[in-house]
Amino acid sequence: MITFITGNNHKVEEAENIFEKFNIELEHIDLGYTEPQGTLEDVAKAGAEYAAQKLNKSVIVEDAGLFIKALSWFPGTYSSYVQDTIGNQGILKLMNNIKNTEDRYAEFRSVIGYCAPNIEPKIFLGKVSGSIAFEEKGNEGFAFDPIFYVPEKDKTFGELTTNEKNQFSHRRNSLELFVNWYKTIEDNK
Ligand code: ITT
User: Fold this and answer.
1) 51 touches ligand 1 (CB under 6 Å)
2) What is the pTM of this model?
3) Do residues 161 and 168 make contact, with C-beta atoms less than 8 angstroms apart?
4) Which of 12, 83, 137 to mutate to test the pocket of ligand 1 (most atoms within 8 A of CB)?
5) What residues contact 75, with CB distance under 8 A and at least 6 apart?
6) Ligand 1: does its nearest atom lie under 6 Å from the Cβ of 159?
7) N or C: which terminus of the chain carries fewer CB neighbours within 10 A?
8) Which residue owns the Cα nearest ligand 1 atom 23?
9) Ligand 1 atom showing the smallest separation from residue 5 Cα
10) Which domain holds residue 138?
11) Is 164 helix (H, G, I), strand (E, B) or coil?
12) Rounded to whole angstroms, how far apart are CA atoms 48 and 58?
């Protein structure tokens, strides 16, 4: 069993669905720790280390963000703040004069931090490519999902079910890297 530390229930729902595919049971705890300012990797490492010591067990945390090329990879590590303040409409406004889909390239990144008591934290990075849509579409998912357009599907993340998003999302990719590594250490116990 793995303990996922997060305050975001959408993440829990997605992670549960992904771990089911790998036959790993997931427990969820909301610890509410203060995140340091830094890269996704810094935040995931620090969070995992803190939670593992505090709970005295092996844990994962995740730090994620939306990175938009035309905005010099903004909002990136400020994604949470930007989602809570200007929101999707604010992002669309910033992209107003960028008319071609190719120029609206964006990626979601997810970094999983894993740690257990008295070991160094480990991190796993997953990404997914897409572009910023011209308007919000769909009621599935959460946060930036309605403005994240995936050309291969001709749909936004907001128009995909959790199950569909979980086939190839940034979170699927980071969690899959984690699970593959975790299974090797479990097998060696
Ligand atoms: P934690 O408790 O796990 O930290 P959080 O909601 O603060 O949850 P992050 O800092 O990792 O999550 O995420 C940064 C922002 O990006 C935040 O506003 C999220 O809602 C948003 N986000 C993360 N993953 C997303 C996804 O798959 N789809 C849409 N928005 C996402």
Assistant:
1) no
2) 0.96
3) no
4) 83
5) 65, 66, 67, 68, 81, 82, 83, 91
6) no
7) C
8) 64
9) 3
10) 2-187
11) helix
12) 9
Catalytic residue from among 63, 84, 103, 187: 63
84 labelled catalytic: no
Q: Which amino acid is at 10?
A: H
pLDDT tens by residue, 26-82: 999 999 877 788 999 999 999 999 999 999 999 999 999 999 999 999 999 999 999
Q: Measuring CA to CA, how many Å separate 101 from each of 104, 132, 182?
A: 5, 8, 38
CA 171-59-66 angle, 5° bins: 25
Decide: 132 and 148 in contact? Cβ < 8 Å: yes
Q: How many residues does the chain have?
A: 189
Q: How far is the CA of 128 from the centre of ligand 1 (A)?
A: 14
Closest ligand 1 atom to 47 CA: 4
CATH number at residue 108: 3.90.950.10
Alpha-carbon distance 67 to 132, whole Å? 10
Domain count of the chain?
1
